[in-house]
């Protein structure tokens, strides 16, 4: 709690002290009484405001904060609702007359004061406002700052209520077409199987109301005495690893992550198991190299995007290349032969080119190579030629250009 006088209270206190001293010096009883009354008013206001401090004691107020949606994509808005509740009559007294101010990270508020709508009820106050997610990451909200003044306006107190909350921000993503025929190729589709699963490669489950009767597996149903249906596992779809080379430049970093995330979601929507590999796996993930499947529902998209929230730029080009080499080695050690590798890369050094050359031995490898600065264009072209010699399909991109254009150019590199 922070207790302080208002300008009026400060002036009244000074006037009271001066009047009291003059009254004593001049022997003026009325002047002493006036000074004493002024000081008592200031002290009484301080005691009253302090006693009703909403952040202390067993009658303190409770605060709950909700953000919808959370996580939110960069560039989009989230609606925040803060509910301050009085749990007993004493807390209701503390709730009355409070003024509220919410705190938010600059990445959510843009450095501007938050404009909120306050709705009051007998035992509850609801504060609602919107924030604009400016950048990928995890950004704090709160705690709530409350202020109270006395009826005479001479004393004011401020306190914080509740704990900090967190809004997670995913990268901005762009819907991309998923031309599986281009990425996989017809010969591979014949070898791997079509999208419609056969009875040999489809898993069976119990019939649930609303299931399509055309998916009933009659022979298994007759054998078990209960209806069994084929669950669509998107059999024959190659697993996809999206390999991300994290650049040191902040602008290139966010654009690269956005491109990699968009690629990942496009392939997931196309029925492929997908994973995102950066060489710096998320320590919070139970198995950061596990593939995510579209059959997991909306949680699959969230699982992929969650892996991008905490990605950070390397401290140096050497560290970035070491992480990329580590990621390339991970692709060899996770036993996912025959997969599709989609890579978002920068100009590569000799060790990274050598590590990535082996990826194309057992995978269909595709790469976009960015030139972060005009000076890197020659290095990017050299990287593209080295990758193509190793069996990759590759094209050059420029950070900041439309993600869809980069994707279509990559697909066109197969021709």
What does the secondary structure layout of this molecule look like, with pairings?
Blueprint: E1 2-5, H1 7-26, H2 29-51, E2 62-68, E3 72-73, E4 77-85, H3 89-95, E5 99-101, H4 106-109, E6 117-121, E7 124-132, E8 137-141, E9 144-149, E10 155-161, E11 165-170, H5 180-184, H6 186-192, E12 203-206, H7 218-224, E13 228-231, E14 240-244, H8 250-269, E15 274-277, H9 298-306, H10 317-333, E16 340-345, H11 350-357, H12 359-362, E17 364-370, H13 377-389, E18 393-397, H14 403-412
Parallel strand pairs: 3-11, 14-15, 14-16, 16-17, 17-18
Antiparallel strand pairs: 1-10, 2-4, 4-7, 5-9, 6-7, 8-11, 9-10, 12-13
Helix pairs in contact: 1-2, 8-9, 10-11
InterPro entries: DUF58 (IPR002881)
Keywords: Membrane, Transmembrane, Transmembrane helix
List keywords for this structure.
single chain, 415 residues, alpha/beta, Immunoglobulin-like, five-stranded parallel beta sheet, four-stranded antiparallel beta sheet, 14 helices, 18 strands, 37% helix, elongated, DUF58
Shape: elongated
Please report the distance between the alpha carbons of the first and last residues: 69 Å
Proportion of beta-strand residues = 15-25%
Average of pLDDT: 82
Whole-number tally of structural domains: 4
The largest β sheet comes out as: 5 strands, parallel
User: Segments where pLDDT lies below 50 for 5+ residues?
Assistant: 186-202
CATH fold description of the largest domain: Rossmann fold
């Amino acid at each position: 709690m922070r207790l302080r006088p208002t300008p009026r209270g400060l002036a009244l206190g000074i006037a009271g002290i001066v009047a009291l001293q003059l009254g004593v010096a001049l022997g003026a009883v009325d002047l002493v009484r006036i000074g004493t009354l002024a000081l008592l008013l200031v002290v009484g206001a301080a005691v009253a405001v302090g006693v009703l401090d909403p952040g202390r004691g067993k009658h303190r107020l409770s605060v709950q904060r909700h953000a919808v949606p959370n996580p939110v994509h960069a560039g989009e808005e989230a609606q925040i609702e803060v509910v301050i509740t009085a749990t007993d009559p004493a807390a209701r007294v503390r709730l009355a007359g409070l003024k509220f101010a919410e705190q938010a990270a600059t990445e959510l508020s843009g450095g501007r004061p938050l404009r909120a709508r306050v709705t009051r009820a007998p035992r509850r106050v609801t504060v609602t406002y919107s924030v604009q997610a400016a950048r990928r990451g995890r950004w704090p909200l709160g705690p709530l700052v409350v202020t109270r003044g006395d009826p005479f306006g001479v004393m004011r107190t401020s306190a914080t209520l509740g704990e900090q909350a967190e809004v997670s921000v995913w990268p901005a993503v762009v819907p991309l077409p998923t031309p599986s025929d281009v990425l996989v190729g017809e010969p591979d589709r014949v070898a791997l199987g079509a999208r419609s699963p056969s009875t040999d490669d489809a898993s069976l489950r119990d019939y649930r109301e609303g299931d399509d009767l055309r998916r009933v597996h009659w022979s298994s149903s007759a054998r078990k005495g209960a209806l069994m249906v084929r669950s669509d596992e998107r059999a024959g779809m190659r697993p996809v690893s999206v390999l991300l080379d994290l650049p040191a430049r902040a602008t290139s970093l966010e654009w690269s992550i956005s491109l990699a995330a968009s690629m990942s979601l496009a392939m997931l929507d196309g029925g492929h198991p997908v994973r995102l590999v950066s060489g710096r796996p998320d320590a919070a993930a139970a198995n950061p190299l596990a593939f995510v499947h579209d059959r997991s529902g909306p949680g699959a998209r969230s699982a992929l995007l969650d892996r991008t929230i905490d990605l950070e730029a390397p401290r140096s080009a050497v560290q970035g290349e070491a992480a990329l080499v580590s990621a390339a080695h991970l692709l060899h050690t996770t036993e996912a032969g025959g997969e599709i590798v989609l890579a978002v890369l920068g100009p590569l050094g000799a060790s990274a080119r050598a590590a990535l050359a082996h990826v194309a031995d057992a995978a269909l490898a595709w790469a976009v190579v960015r030139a972060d600065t005009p000076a890197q264009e020659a290095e990017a072209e050299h990287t593209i030629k080295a990758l193509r010699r190793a069996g990759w399909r590759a094209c050059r991109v420029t950070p900041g250009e439309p993600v869809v254009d980069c994707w279509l150019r990559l697909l066109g590199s197969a021709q």
